[in-house]
Design goal:
There is one protein chain. By secondary structure, the chain is mainly β. It has a 5-stranded antiparallel beta sheet, with no helix packed on it. Strands 3-9-6-7 form a 4-stranded antiparallel beta sheet, with no helix packed on it. Strands 5-10 form a two-stranded antiparallel sheet. Strand 6 and strand 7 form a beta hairpin. The chain is globular. The two termini are 15 Å apart. 25% of the residues are buried.
């Protein structure tokens, strides 16, 4: 279903923040769902030449391969910045993989002290489990896991998302 671990070493985390200017991510227009609930501030990484890092030259992919195996296939990746009022409704990623089986990772780039709310919620038939990731922690989620993100009440919640196909 899911597991939580540290995937990126400190140097990789530093490079992610510095190379991609995570601290300077621009606000994107808030997205709203049909009920008017505010969604995440949006995908904030726009340089498409980086959306599919190659195995040969991408340190992020190499760190992920160390954890999850050399044969994983990266589908896409992006940053999300949640600002005050942002959230994400219940969803699962399986519908986006065009028939492939897959999974995704969410790496927290903010310290929990930098925002309030914004908990990742895993939904099962019987319960909802709220998860607060520490900066640098990564959660691996199977495509059929329903999840959401609670409303951010103050501060900014920044994450790095990778999607994989098997």
């Amino acid at each position: 279903m899911y597991d939580i671990d540290y995937v990126f070493d400190e140097m990789s985390l530093f490079h992610i923040e510095e190379l991609f200017n995570v601290s300077d991510l621009q606000d994107s227009p808030n997205l709203s769902n049909q009920s008017g609930q505010t969604q995440a501030a949006g995908v904030v990484f726009h340089d498409l030449k980086w959306t599919q890092p190659t195995q040969k030259n991408n340190f992020m992919l190499k760190d992920i391969q160390k954890k999850y195996g050399e044969n994983i296939k990266l589908y896409t990746w992006y940053f999300l910045k949640y600002t005050v009022g942002s959230s994400t409704i219940e969803h699962m990623h399986g519908a986006n993989n065009l028939g492939y089986k897959g999974w995704s990772t969410i790496t927290m780039l903010s310290n929990p002290s930098e925002y309030m709310g914004g908990e990742l919620v895993i939904h099962t038939r019987d319960k909802e489990e709220e998860i607060v990731l520490k900066k640098g922690q990564t959660i691996r989620i199977d495509d059929d896991v329903v999840h959401s993100v609670n409303r951010v009440n103050w501060g900014e919640r920044k994450t790095l998302i990778h999607w994989f196909r098997e």
